[in-house]
Design brief:
19% of the residues lie in helices and 34% in strands. By secondary structure, the chain is of the alpha+beta class. It folds into two domains: 163 residues, L,D-transpeptidase catalytic domain-like; 57 residues, Roll (Membrane-bound Lytic Murein Transglycosylase D, Chain A), CATH 3.10.350.10. The strands form three sheets. Strands 1, 4, 5, 6, 7, 8, 11, 12, 13 and 14 form a ten-stranded mixed β-sheet that branches. Strands 2-3 form a two-stranded antiparallel sheet. Strands 9-10 form a two-stranded antiparallel sheet. A hairpin with a 4-residue loop joins strand 4 and strand 5.
């Protein structure tokens, strides 16, 4: 299946899109705490803020978690107006929706641009893909490093230190893409410089699933 990528900043269109939605995802989740889990990491897995998860379970959000501990929470999302084949990203909800033949197939959580470096709005296609990418640090980010007193880095090769993770999907907008991450605790937060971070397994799935250069008509 070929997919068109749409990155849409819903903050500007939210009131319209709520009425254009194609339904609601609503379910109760019981999550079992795994080895190495902590609040921020669980937040990115469930797409619910850790504060809300802690409140729903009457626990101190700063208290340590026990392996095997059960966390119960209600999950709810309004599905955006569907497209035939493609991906719609709701930036405020930090949720990626994948459609096929007009039906919602699945959804995943992302990290989007921080308030001072917001993810651009618009409709884009996947221009190219790369496995084990080298990160060529944009001049704007190099300047940010210099201004904050950090050592200026011009490029980072593939590996554990690379913030792009193992998979990169370049959009038709220069410098912006979907990619994995070496900081999975940042998922479901506004932490990036405009790109959209994905959990490593999601980045791998989309990398293998999306066809470069595919274009389709789509509407919001």
């Amino acid at each position: 299946m070929r997919y068109l990528f749409q990155a849409i900043l819903f903050l500007l269109l939210l009131s319209t899109l709520l009425y254009a939605g194609e339904g609601i995802i609503e379910k109760e989740i019981t999550y079992t705490v795994a080895k190495g889990d902590y609040g921020e990491l669980i937040e990115g897995k469930l797409g619910i803020s850790w504060a809300d998860i802690a409140t729903a379970n009457s626990i101190n959000p700063r208290a340590p978690l026990a392996r095997g501990q059960a966390l119960k929470v209600k999950f709810r999302r309004i599905i955006p107006a569907r497209i035939d084949n493609g991906i719609v990203i709701n930036i405020p909800d930090r949720t990626l929706y994948r459609f096929s033949e007009g039906k919602l197939k699945d959804y995943y959580f992302i990290s989007a641009g921080k308030p001072t470096w917001q993810t651009p709005l618009g409709e884009f296609t996947i221009k190219n893909k790369a496995k084990d990418p080298t990160w060529y640090v944009p001049v704007s980010i190099q300047k940010e490093m210099a201004d904050s007193g950090q050592d200026v880095i011009m490029e980072i090769p593939s590996g554990h230190e690379n913030p792009l993770g193992e998979y990169w999907l370049q959009l038709s907008l220069q410098g912006i893409g979907l990619h994995g991450t070496n900081a999975p605790h940042s998922i479901y937060k506004f932490r990036s410089h405009g790109c959209m971070r994905l959990r490593p397994e999601v980045a791998e799935f989309l990398f293998n699933d999306v066809v470069v250069g595919t274009k389709r008509d789509s509407h919001v």
